[in-house]
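Have a close read of the entry that follows and walk me through the local backbone shapes. See right below:
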Amino acid sequence: RVREAVVSTQSTGDMMALVPACQITANYYAGFAYFMIRKYANTIQLYQHILGYMQRTKQFFQNRSFQAEDINKKNDQMLALLAIANTFCPLRLDESVNIQIKEKQGEKVNRLQHDRDMTVYDDLFFSGCPKFLSPVVSENPTPFGTSGPRGLQLQVFKAEVEQQRLIPTLRSFLKLYTSIPISKLAKFLDMNENEVRCCLMAFKHKKEIARGDNVDQTTLDIDFYVDKDMIHISDTKIARHYGDYYVQQVLKLKESNKLILGSALSRPGPQQSV
């Protein structure tokens, strides 16, 4: 319902849609709410939409210096959260959004995907999360401990990261096969068969939660089911879309033409001798 409320304001011409900074902020908080309830697919959809909007209208913000700093900060925060969400729930990202993530968070994303560095999650979470306020008034100046409400939210997030710790490795093995015995997968993971069954159930559970509402099932990268001691995998190969890349290059060409024309018009002409 959070996303429906935000999208409705964009389509019905509500007051919030007339103020770009307000619209961007509302989408940022709605996406973060989805992120914290583990609906990562909805977070990705929402952030892709608003980041594309910001990319198309960035010339408008550059002319308003009092908004540019806050808008750029929201852009970086959404990219950080989007990098985490796409690690937990891999979906096909728009080419323009993918380029921004590589430019801003490329090194950290590589450490997440290849080194499984858990400290990177903390850095990205702190970079992307908003400021947290205490919901209660207490005589104790630190009712949530020395770390405050922000530390409490980090603990909740780290618990989710711990639950997701083996899922990327499990996904990488499953994508190599169309069917594999549980005993063979257990040897690969250096675990017993019961632990592997628990991991598979956790993977299935997390995938269903992360899918969220109104998300196309075909956008998810992998699906599987267990029949007795055999795992059957249905790998969904996501077709590459070249249209996004083409549109992005056209927009860059238009911006380059504007800069060239602007510099040509501002250049003083040759002085005529009297």
Notes: The mean pLDDT is 78.
